[in-house]
Design goal:
Length: 79
Amino acid sequence: MLTLAKERLTVRAASEALSESLVRAGVTPMDALHAALASTASADFFATTDDRLLRKLKSIPGLTCQTMPLLALVSEVTK
């Protein structure tokens, strides 16, 4: 999957603010930053193998990317 990456992201004020709101909603700090960076960078998808994180992120408004299990993303990008 990493070979498909096309850019590196930098933490900016918007991603930091979203990350802090995700932490307040119960997401761990590293997961919150990862999801916030994806969302503020206008990523189409945020994939994870962590089912608890996936359920939590799907219940939190404000993310602009679609959250999904990693295997679903593999199916999506190899269509």
